[in-house]
Amino acid sequence: DQVKALQENVAIGYAVTYVFGSFGAIIICVNILPRLMGRSIRDDAIKAEIEQHGDMDLLQPGEEMAVRHIIGRTYRIADGFDKTVADIEAAATDYPVTVERIKRGSAIIPAIPETRLAGGDIVLLVGRGEAVLKAAAGIGKEESNVPNMELRMRKSEVLVTRDDMDGKTFSDIRTLMPREKLRGVFILALSTDGKNVPLNWETVLHKGSIITLYGSEQDVARAAADIGYPMAQSNKTDFVYMGLGLVVGLLIGLVNVKIGGLPITLGSGGGALLSGLLFGWYRTRRPSMGYMPPGAVQLLKDLGLAGFVAIIGLSSGLSAVETIKEHGLTIFIIGALVTIVPLLLTMAIGRYVLRYDNAAVLAGALSGSRSANPAFGEVLDKAGNSVPTVPFAITYALANVFLTLLGPLVVFLT
Fold it and tell me: What is the DSSP letter of 106?
């Protein structure tokens, strides 16, 4: 009976202090921290994201580029023009330009390298804007709204699997792949270890990198087969990978080691956390595994947090109210102090000792050090991107492991 009463006291104390433990962390991480640093979480999150992606232009939700890198233009061949498709494409030395479609009279003829163009033909040129304009000089007059000259283009993410491409630059790759394999294919983006990499001829490619290819269906499929294989475009969750991660986490949580009579165990929560870190790291090495749509991820986050709070309230809410009536606000005030003092100390150490100068990064680390999921949710909302996620994940993992291990130690010593 005494053990049961003490266990109920733990839940009651948790329920009473949880309210301010959540709101207090939100206030400090989202309101006080930016004021202390004199910086905005949103501005610093954008700054950090740009630095991580090599000063690339990053589009925000609802934005798009006014001038697109890859364009398509139709031109009517001038009289007396006597060149083949290969001649036009070979003249584009800076960036590739492809003759994707040719219309002669009312018929569409094959746009192959050997095709010789004649006056009156209409050609569709595709490539970078400046390269297309340069290649079109001397060809003829630009036409618009030409029937049957529309071309459907496809964008596909391809996982690089070729060993001979590892550590090579894009300039080197042009010699590794035959020209006909790359014809009609344009590279829009490159990401390595989950980070976008600026594109130029000296950009280094690695095995496991993801290249975003753009071109017609057949051109993209041909190039993808030579580079690696396309990433699955799906809105389905890889339940096998997720389930395996959960099983491994539960098995880790079952491990119970006694040191001098002190039981050491991570429990199911700590085990799932370590398993999540392990499987998350492995997915960065094998991006084709463990896919989960962003909407499903957000739903699990929201439902998990809401369900957690609801269970605490339903199981200990009545006892918490009775405890406050009996003992006053003493427990609540103690909980507020336990929340505020460590956060203020950690914030000061991070700012003045560790010299954090980015509010978004420090806010993520601060919320993680308290295992404060609600605070992290608000920080993430203010940031508008995933910059606070990495510092949160690191400190959150450490905090959960140490809290799980030190909890039995506190009980054992008392």
Answer: T
